Amino acid sequence: MGRAPSSDESGLKKGPWTPEEDNILVDYIHKHGHGSWRALPKLAGLNRCGKSCRLRWTNYLRPDIKRGKFSQEEEQLIINLHAVLGNKWSAIAGHLPGRTDNEIKNLWNTHLKKKLLQMGLDPVTHRPRSDHLDLLSSLQQLLAATDIFTNSWDINVARLQSDATELAKLQLLHNILQVLGANPSSNMDLLNPFGPSLNEVLGLDQSKLQNPYNGSTGFVSQNQPNFQSFEAPSQQQGLPNHMKSEKVDEQLGASYSLPTPLDSLPNLVSASPECSAGKEMENKVNPNEFCEPSSTSTTFEMWGDFMYEEVTDAYWKDLMEQ
DNA sequence: AACCGACCCAACCGCCGCTTA
DNA sequence: CTAAGCGGCGGTTGGGTCGGT
């Protein structure tokens, strides 16, 4: 691990620290404190630059450092903190006693980022990833390519396309539901990792965070056409002219209408229920079909894993003040 | 057993902001 | 006001380790 020992032009040693060097550094700091880091190596008798000494001390030798695997609770907290603070590793580390920013950064880059990706969440925004929309794009292009060889099969292709669009809609909705862990009977607080307390802190409108399937207001109600039409120019570009018909537009328009009810909200909430089924989808799809525990439990349970419910209002208020 | 690629993580690098002269 | 010094931070690197073939 680390790097091969080397030295720079000034003759100062670089690379991994030896136990002897560690001892010298620890002894010196115990006796004198670190004082000026720049002056320290010379005073302590170390052939290192001050920066290297400081890093070694703060990331490894400090007595209050907690080593070993991160607990589930710590991971959950880091994810939640990252949703609020972004890549402010130092600030995040400030909320995890005994953990260093470097350690947290490494954990994020090696584990947590992947975890979020697997959950279909963008590790930067903590929102559901939009790349699942590519699915339909690919499908359309595939069908368009097929059409090149099947000029006389227009009707069949159109039917295929229609079916595929419906299929893609189902897949899209399925993905969304998986990401949200939606379950008609579930407590919708679970869809918001911060719980209602943080929403209150942030001044979020709770009515926008309710379950669309529980008979209450929904993410966006049908009476609140808070949709942002998703234009898919690239798809149209990829289609033969005759397929860029109104009918296709209709289909695409209907299937790509994505609600963005939370776009006006601060970009803070993990897995915001920003996507909802449009009216047409609601008419054609029974969401219950996608909410069976067997099909959604994995993601749902994962979300459960990331709920960190012990956080208090005061805690988040404190966080937001940073 | 040897090879190889993915993963892990300590350490380095460069930049930024604060302090001080 | 400005420049130099310094500490701190986030991004990146690269060598060791692990697991699969």
UniProtKB/TrEMBL annotation:
| Location within or outside the cell | Nucleus
- Alphabetically ordered keywords of this record: DNA-binding, Nucleus, Repeat
Q: Note whether DNA-binding occurs among the keywords.
A: yes
Domain Myb-like positions: 9-61, 62-112
Tagged with keyword DNA-binding? yes
Q: What GO terms fall under cellular component here?
A: nucleus
Q: Which PANTHER family match?
A: F14D16.11-RELATED
Name under which the protein is recorded: Uncharacterized protein
Species this chain originates from? Phaseolus vulgaris
Show the taxonomic lineage. Answer: Eukaryota, Viridiplantae, Streptophyta, Embryophyta, Tracheophyta
